[in-house]
């Protein structure tokens, strides 16, 4: 059976790409700090 629904494709705007990159950097920094805290208490 073939799905007849139309697919929607979305793209990030340049501002959205920049915001995503900022959030990814913040998340990586946060996870590093959490990892160090866990290792220090293990």
Protein architecture, described:
- The chain has 42 residues and is mostly helical.
- It has a domain of 26 residues.
- The chain is 64% helix and 0% strand.
- It is built from 1 helix and no strands.
- The longest helix has 27 residues.
- The protein is elongated.
- The model has no long low-confidence stretch (mean pLDDT 93).
SSE layout and pairing:
Elements: H1 14-40
List keywords for this structure.
single chain; 42 residues; mainly alpha; 64% helix; 0% strand; elongated
- Find the structural class using helix and strand composition: mainly alpha
> Separation of termini?
53 Å
Strand content: under 5%
Mean pLDDT: 93
Shape: elongated
Secondary structure tally: strands:
0
Q: In DSSP terms, counting alpha (H) and pi (I) runs of 4 or more, how many helices?
A: 1
Could you name the ranges where pLDDT drops below 50 across 5 or more consecutive residues?
A: none
Task: Name the helicity range.
Answer: 55-70%
